[in-house]
Amino acid sequence: MSVLVVGISHNSAPMALLEKVALDDDGVQKLIADSASCDHVTEATVIATCNRLEIYTEVERFHGSIEQISRLLVDRAGEATEAMLPHLYVHYDDGAISHLFQVAAGLDSMAVGEGQILGQTRDALRRGQELGTVGPALNLLFQQALRVGKRTRAETDIDQVAPTLVSAALDQTTAVVGPVEGKDVVVVGAGSMAGLATATVSRLNAGRLTVVNRSADRGERLADQYDAHAVPLDELGVALAHADIVISCTGSSGSVIDTAQVAAARAVSDRPLALIDLALPHDIDRGVRDLPGVSLVGLTELAAALQGSASGREVLEVRRILGEEVTAFLAARRQASVTPTVVALRSMATGVVDAEMERLESRLPDLDEHTRAEIRHTVRRVADKLLHEPTVRVKELANEQGAVSYAAALAELFALDPEAVDAVTRPVGVEEAGS
Predict the structure, then answer these.
(1) How far apart (Å, rounded) are the C-alpha atoms in residues 5 and 116?
(2) All residues at 6 or more sequence positions from 330 whose CB lies less than 8 Å from its CB, including other chains
(3) How far are the Cα atoms of 28, 170, 260, 401, 431 from residue 104, in angstroms, in the given order?
(4) Closest among 267, 394, 410 to 349, alpha carbons compared
(5) For 114-126, what is each residue's pLDDT tens digit?
(6) N or C: where does the chain have the smaller number of CB atoms within 10 Å of the terminal CB?
(7) What is the pTM of this model?
(8) How far apart are CA 381 and CA 394, in angstroms?
(9) Residue 286: closest CA among 12, 58, 16
(10) Which residues are catalytic?
């Protein structure tokens, strides 16, 4: 069994293509279910963000699995296979583990070191747990990835060397409207990115802060946290008329702010207007760029602005930590792979000792209890000593190439029942995804 990752991200594809594979919550759940139903796939979940879509699976076979899983992404993009495949990337087994740790640490993010990816990784684990598609292998891997992500942020300043997408976008608008402080800001949406945007502008002492959302309840809950005003989506035009900065991140399938709405808002105000579109697919019609006094910052512009913005020293330190963590995880996994064989071997030895003691006791019925106990103890010690060296050695060899063959050789030499080996399981605790 091995981990297979097939994905597409801002590192491998243009934003126009990423928009075509962007999914809402229902779409993510369907993709997880479709992935889990592929041949040779035993576990599956998906990391979906505004700039990446990655399918994580535990597979019995590499070939066959990769074709089916890649096809799921190609079909969702609606592109010809030959146009889509160059933008997909594949990581397998050790490479997949290393990739997930890098993602959780923020090294693969558009804004290197940003912390939102930890929550998105946690969401992927939670969804898989709720759908029943995450089993022991992916659960253990994702739990460790979350711990690694927390460790890199606790031991380095990686989360401070690059701005979040929201902060970076606001930096891009400073030349147009000036600092956020005192400005009228409108946030369109009420999801996690909208929450981050609202928190950021509130911290920067925005003036009038308005949250616009299709669902009134969700909009009001977000607005209440930051002493903002909540308005329904059908009043967006009114909100635009008094805005200096608009940040839109709804996750809708089509445009939420069109050129006509912005033009109407500009008819009653000649103040510069900065529009920030953090949605994928995009929320704001690109035609607004042609309106006088209006600027638009989208994910494409942010990707260019954030290129190479992280501190080299911090990145090197995070990579050192990731190297340690990947090595330790792989060593533990290899040792765990031989544990069922070792346990089955010791169980067999215990059975042999018990059978021989019964045979001895039937032939020497006059043995007193003290003598029987001494003999039983001695025979067990002999069996333990005989097995000690090979079982210790096979665990040591598990860290070298060919660990599986050593375990198989041990099972073959002692004629262990394959079903007895398979029956040995090590319980893996399923930590709450939200913890």
Answers:
(1) 21
(2) 94, 97
(3) 19, 25, 40, 28, 17
(4) 410
(5) 888 999 999 999 9
(6) C
(7) 0.74
(8) 20
(9) 16
(10) 50
- Take residue 74 and report the two structure tokens written for it: 């190609």
Q: What is the pLDDT of residues 289-324, one digit of tens each?
A: 999 999 999 988 888 777 766 667 888 899 999 999
Tell me how far apart the terminal alpha carbons of the chain are, to the nearest angstrom: 28
DSSP 368-391: -HHHHHHHHHHHHHHHHHHHHHHH
423: amino acid identity, one letter: A
Exposed, middle or buried: residue 17 (CB in 10 Å: 0-12, 13-18, 19+)?
middle
CA distance linking residue 343 with residue 426, whole number of Å: 11
Is the pLDDT at 29 greater than 50? The verdict is: yes
How far apart are the C-alpha atoms of 169 and 162, rounded to whole Å? 12
User: Which helix H or strand E contains 275, and what residues bound it?
Assistant: strand 273-277
- Cα three-residue angle 56-250-165, rounded to 5 degrees: 70
What phi and psi values does residue 404 have, to the nearest 5 degrees? -65, -40
Secondary structure tally for the chain: helices H, strands E: 17, 10
Whether 195 and 165 have beta carbons less than 8 Å apart is answered as no
What is the pLDDT confidence band of residue 83, given thresholds at 50, 70 and 90? confident
